[in-house]
Design a protein that fits this description.
By secondary structure, this protein is mainly alpha-helical. The protein has one domain (2-13, 22-44, 52-259): Ferritin, core subunit, four-helix bundle (Ferritin, Up-down Bundle), CATH 1.20.1260.10. 72% of the residues lie in helices and 0% in strands. It has helices at residues 2-17, 25-42, 55-71, 77-84, 89-115, 125-136, 139-160, 166-193, 199-223, 225-230, 235-253. The longest helix is centred in the middle third of the chain and has 28 residues, at 166-193. It is globular. The structure holds fe (ii) ion (2 copies). It comes from Herbiconiux aconitum.
């Protein structure tokens, strides 16, 4: 039901905005086209295959996936109502489809948990803290928190992609391809959001984001350490690589250094046919 409502909202918004000039039209088109690509990729996940993982590694990965399943389950209502105030219906349409993609990730993790015979979590402190932080802040800060979560998660999904379990590998590959684009989507939104902010303001925002990113990477390295090790990645290596992903995204997102002015929006790496 919820999915149907989101699809309806998306279609209406895309139609209304088709004559507009939003820089996010390319993103709305990308997310629309991505629906068919998801179906193709999902069909290749070998759900019926046996897991070669030891029972200890299976428990470690299942406990870790439980937290990610919960984190990606949100309906994005707060995010969408904050964005709606700005009146860019094309961005709103893209945002609806973005939230749907996150919900699909949650469903994929849920299916992987079911294969392991593990129930999803009702709540977890790390998800609760993230939700409270997001609700306290405005749109730009909420998008910044998404950027932090997604750059850190990128390395986590990369680790899962190295798992000996073919289902975990398949799910990770599917989610990774989306997250690469999500990070670019958040960068474009933040670039627009910081366009009229002074260099000092942008530096301050970036410094605050770095503080949260350091905390987030550290929490994931500790909290998901057994799962990372089960996939052959040392938590300290994960920590360094996750923060490198954030550093690469923070430059263009906060318009730092050579990204200060003039650059075109990132757009998706695979533009949808127009
Ligand atoms: Fe996701
Ligand atoms: Fe994402």
């Amino acid at each position: 039901m919820r999915q149907q409502e989101l699809s309806k909202t998306s279609t209406n918004a895309t139609t209304e905005a088709s004559a507009g000039t939003s820089a996010f039209a390319v993103w709305a088109d990308y997310f629309e086209a991505n629906l068919a690509r998801h179906d193709r990729l999902d069909a290749h996940i070998p759900w019926g295959s046996a897991s070669p993982l030891s029972s200890a590694d299976r428990v470690a990965i299942a406990q870790s996936l439980q937290r990610f399943e919960l984190g990606e389950r949100g309906e994005g209502t707060g995010l969408m109502s904050k964005a709606g105030v700005r009146g860019d219906v094309v961005y709103d349409a893209a945002l609806v489809l973005f939230v749907q993609e996150e919900q699909k990730h949650s469903a994929l993790f849920g299916s992987a948990l079911k294969r392991f015979g593990v129930e999803p979590l009702a709540e977890h402190w790390s998800d609760g803290a993230f939700v409270v932080l997001r609700r306290l802040m405005g749109l730009r800060t909420e998008i910044t928190l998404f950027l932090i979560a997604e750059t850190v998660a990128l390395e986590y999904f990369g680790a899962l992609h190295g798992s000996p379990d073919p289902v975990i590998r398949g799910v990770a590959e599917r989610v990774l391809t989306d997250e690469v684009e999500h990070i670019r989507f958040q960068i474009d939104q933040l670039r627009a959001g910081f366009e009229r902010v002074s260099p000092a303001g942008r530096m301050l925002a970036a410094a605050a984001a770095w503080t949260v990113a350091l905390g987030a990477a550290t929490v994931v390295a500790f909290d998901h350490g057994p799962a990372l090790r089960a996939c052959g990645l040392r938590p300290l290596t994960f920590w360094g690589r996750a923060l490198r992903h954030f550093r690469l995204a923070a430059g263009p997102a906060f318009r730092l250094g050579r990204h200060a002015a003039g650059a075109a929006p990132h757009g998706p790496t695979v533009p949808a046919p127009r």
